[in-house]
Amino acid sequence: MSTSTTTAPLLDVRDLTVTFQRKGGRATSAVDGVSFTIAPGEVVGVVGESGSGKSVTSLAVMGLLPTRATRVGGQVLFEGRDLLTLPTAERARMRGRELAMVFQDPMSSLNPVLTVGLQVTEVLRRHNDISAADARTEAVDLLRRVGIPDPARRVGEYPHQLSGGMRQRALIAIALACKPRLLICDEPTTALDVTIQAQVLELLRELVAEMGTAMMMITHDLGVVAGLCDRVNVMYAGRVVEAAGRQELFAAPRHRYTEGLLASIPRLDSPRGDRLTPIPGTPRDTIGWDRACAFAPRCRHVTDACIHPDLELAEMDPDHHVRCVHPAGRPEPATEEHR
Ligand SMILES: Nc1ncnc2c1ncn2[C@@H]1O[C@H](COP(=O)(O)OP(=O)(O)OP(=O)(O)O)[C@@H](O)[C@H]1O
């Protein structure tokens, strides 16, 4: 089932499944019936622990999963067209122009033997009919817009000559060069120092708002979600377990996993001396969804009813969906911190 937005969605992911065929014939399911939408200009977070399927979901949307031994099912509708059925060449043409992606590690995403300027102009010239000189002028302007100082000099530099923060800014310049309709960011600040993280997130927020670009923000950091996202999808073991507006999610989490995630991070409004409550166990303590709620082994509220093969993502409120047999009630209203 799909979580809804009021305007026609830009991206409408329906019942996405990704299965990897392992050596010896065993298939593992990484994404298991994921559905969500992103409206034009909307910033949607995908949050969850390591291994929950966030990156595989984004790579499936971008068409960047390895084709060998990978089975992708469902639909990825971009402005109504199913990307999964488009010819490979057409998908490649859309990457950079309609959809772009920023990865976690800028050093492995940038080409080390090409100047930063050349990597920006390459994208501009691939998708636009412009001269080399105009592309260079535009590249300098883009580097300036992403906050790279002295951009006219920096265009001639190689990635290793830039700091980590500057490299990530260069990568953002490349991703936004053709003003894509959708930008997918996969943990874009994890590899950066904490002070630089905030600057890069603020830059992303400003740029997508200015360009009207929608953003899918993949993160395990609820602080990033609180500061940036309009709506949030919480993933666990390859499925969306809760989908809600940001305010609603922080004020009244309904899934016991989301509740646990929120209880395990420090909050400014917690009383002094209040202890954080970690979620017991690890994501490895999982039951297959076909037999039960995958979170059941780690859940403090588990009962026999959680052994239930058809646990649907159910509507709690308009635009708030939860996959849980014992969802939490509605606690106190949102604090200023999360508005
Ligand atoms: N190419 C692949 N072949 C086989 N299994 C894979 C492949 N890529 C990912 N997986 C598996 O798919 C599952 C989901 O991985 P994914 O990278 O999407 O998780 P994630 O939520 O993004 O975690 P992280 O935050 O650590 O990146 C994991 O169990 C992972 O081992």
TrEMBL record:
Keywords: ATP-binding, Cell membrane, Membrane, Nucleotide-binding, Transport. Pfam families: ABC_tran, oligo_HPY. It is a peripheral membrane protein. It comes from the Bacteria. PROSITE patterns: ABC_TRANSPORTER_1, ABC_TRANSPORTER_2. One of its GO terms (cellular component) is plasma membrane. It is found in: Cell membrane. SUPFAM superfamilies: P-loop containing nucleoside triphosphate hydrolases. Residues 11-262 form the ABC transporter domain. One of its GO terms (biological process) is peptide transport. Its main location: membrane. GO terms for molecular function: ATP binding; ATP hydrolysis activity. Belongs to the ABC transporter superfamily. NCBIfam families: oligo_HPY. This is Peptide/nickel transport system ATP-binding protein. It comes from Auraticoccus monumenti.
